[in-house]
Amino acid sequence: MAMIEFDQVSKRFGDGFVAVDDLSLRIEDGEFMIFVGPSGCGKTTALRMIAGLEEVSSGEIRIGGRSVGGLDPQDRDVAMVFQNYALYPHKSVRENVGFPLRMRSMGKAEIDARVAEVAKMLGIEALLDRKPRDLSGGQRQRVAMGRAIIRHPQVFLMDEPLSNLDAKLRIQMRVELVRLHRRLGVTTIYVTHDQTEAMTLGQRVTVLNKGRIQQVAPPHHLYMHPTNAFVAGFIGSPPMNFLRGRLTETGVDVGPVHVTLDQETLRRITPGPQAVLVGLRPEGLVPTAKVDEAIMGEVEVVEELGAERYLYLRPRGLDVVEQSDRPAELAGSICARLNEPIGVAAGGSVALRPRPELVRLFDPDTGTSRLSVPA
Hints:
Layout: E1 4-12, E2 18-27, E3 32-36, H1 43-51, E4 58-63, E5 66-67, E6 78-81, H2 93-103, H3 108-122, H4 137-149, E7 155-159, H5 167-184, E8 187-192, H6 195-201, E9 204-209, E10 212-217, H7 219-224, H8 229-234, E11 241-247, E12 251-254, E13 257-260, H9 263-268, E14 275-280, E15 285-287, E16 295-304, E17 309-315, E18 334-338, E19 349-354, E20 359-362
Parallel strand pairs: 3-8, 3-9, 6-7, 7-8
Antiparallel strand pairs: 1-2, 1-4, 4-5, 9-10, 11-12, 11-14, 12-13, 14-20, 15-19, 16-17, 16-19, 17-18
């Protein structure tokens, strides 16, 4: 186990593209850290620099207090689990899992004992004599993890290891990864573009965009107190709604709707212009009969998910800020997540009240949060 430190690390490719820009971050010994962000944000490049598969352009990476800049990948004592499993097709599961130990010229008896131990841990004892072609995607991923675990490395590096699995198996494997980390206690960095994985797996989450850190925090803190509009919009599914508004002495006006904020929230508003970007998560909108304090709109789509439902509506008199990942046919709409049926179908009208305690405020130009984090 080891602490990992990025000290002003940057990566510039030959064409001038900056994949990682001045990254400074400390990952504690035994921590499960998530790197999350959109495609091209630098998360995989950062992982590959730890492994020694990419050179650092500037700055320093330390593992266990030791600079690894001059070390070859095999000398860094890290194990990497890839998206595509990277198994040897002509070798059995037993041979794949034990391969790193054979490369160290370890004795057969010790290799067999370690393979049996890892196979039992991952529930793949019955698969040891099969070839990768005879395995399901989930079984192949377990074999790939077994090959990493058997080395007893200081650090696990995982690059979107579950992305090729179906939705049900991904959930199962997420649970198994958490249990595995709790048992082994090895410092782990897990790269994903899936914010659901980020929120359910990590002890802390690093959100990256365009090569730069946007925020580092535990999942719940990240969700409740995003440091900027990018984090607020990226974390959460469905994503946060953004509307243009103006601050008043008692709260914020969102078009014709006034949202009264409590005194504690008003005290947390940082100095700045009255114009703000108002963030409302889907669960921050609830049905109401009081139309004078409600967002009114026509329902465009209702998505029934059993225990909850997503209601997409086009609000009247509100300036909706578009999000790049929202389908074009839903442009100008906002989303509400409701726990109870409300008996409104597409084409009907609905009144929704913003929950003041879930209102988030951002600078419309910089995206920076206008709310200080509560003590």
